[in-house]
Amino acid sequence: MAADHRYVPITLWRVASRLMLTLFNLFGEPDALARQHSIGANDHKLVCNWLRTVEALFRRLLFIEASYYVGELTPPKPRVKRPRARREMAFFPDQPEAWRVTFRTMERGPAGPRRSGRSHRAPLKFYSAWPLAERFEALLRVHNNPAPFAKRLARRLNAECVSAILKAPAELEHRIDHEPFVEIEALCAERRGVLPVRPPPNYRLPWIPDRPPAVWNDEPCLLLVVHDNQPHALRHFRGRRMQRT
């Protein structure tokens, strides 16, 4: 197994581990949640409330990890479009390692207004448990090995998108201890200051006249210094292997 290298102090990852285990103990591990098939509306609302809190904490830690990779990674090579044959894929509740999951690196905003054609429908009483189980599994994978997720986030990390990454529900502050919460907030503020200011992907340089305007903003990009921290050992969790007492 490759060395587990983390820039975030191991004590803060253990705080995230305890909150993730609390989530699993309350609502089940990914495979157990997937076997439920569906859950009631009230339970779904409660699960989403806790899940958004845990994801917000993981996003903060992942942001700190990703900030150390900015400037190190080479730009990805352009993908060559190739014809791909469509194939059917099956996922089973008892094989969470084979699921195709994605961790949400940015908090989604509130849902927009529904179309008028659906306004007459009654509210849902049951929701599918599969999307929640996949988000549970994504948390587990980030916890066990955050480096690939941090490097993927670092490729598109800049000062403009930090607010969306660090967006968190108000419950986060009350579901972990005060001291680690303050330490995480301080680290996020510190690492936010070293990020370069990048234009959006479709940005084009404006036409510059011969005489510059009276006000001219020229924000310099800061160089990122990567500290060589020692790797830390952290317990790896897998749902079926966790022994509960």
Structural write-up:
The chain has 245 residues and is mainly alpha-helical. The chain has a domain at 9-74 and 100-107 and 124-199 and 222-227. Helix content is 40%, strand content 2%. The chain contains eight helices and two strands, in the order H-H-E-H-E-H-H-H-H-H. A two-stranded antiparallel sheet has the order 1-2. Helix 3 (41-67) packs parallel to helix 4 and helix 4 (130-144) packs across helix 5. The longest helix is centred in the N-terminal third of the chain and has 27 residues, at 41-67. The radius of gyration is 21 Å and the shape is globular. The two termini are 28 Å apart.
Summary?
It is built from 8 helices and 2 strands. The chain has helices at residues 10-27, 30-35, 41-67, 130-144, 146-154, 162-165, 172-175, 178-192; strands at 38-40, 126-128.
Write the layout of secondary structure elements.
Elements: H1 10-27, H2 30-35, E1 38-40, H3 41-67, E2 126-128, H4 130-144, H5 146-154, H6 162-165, H7 172-175, H8 178-192
Antiparallel strand pairs: 1-2
Notable traits:
single chain, 245 residues, mainly alpha, two-stranded antiparallel sheet, 8 helices, 2 strands
Strand segment tally:
2
Helix content: 40-55%
Going by helix content, strand content and strand pairing, the class is: mainly alpha
User: Distance between termini?
Assistant: 28 Å
| Largest beta sheet: strand ordering | 1-2
Shape: globular
Name the helix and strand elements from N-terminus to C-terminus, one letter apiece: HHEHEHHHHH
Q: What's the gyration radius in Å?
A: 21 Å
Number of helices: 8
- The averaged pLDDT comes out at 77
Largest sheet: 2 strands, antiparallel
Indicate the low-confidence ranges by residue numbers: 200-235, 239-245
Quote the beta fraction. Answer: under 5%
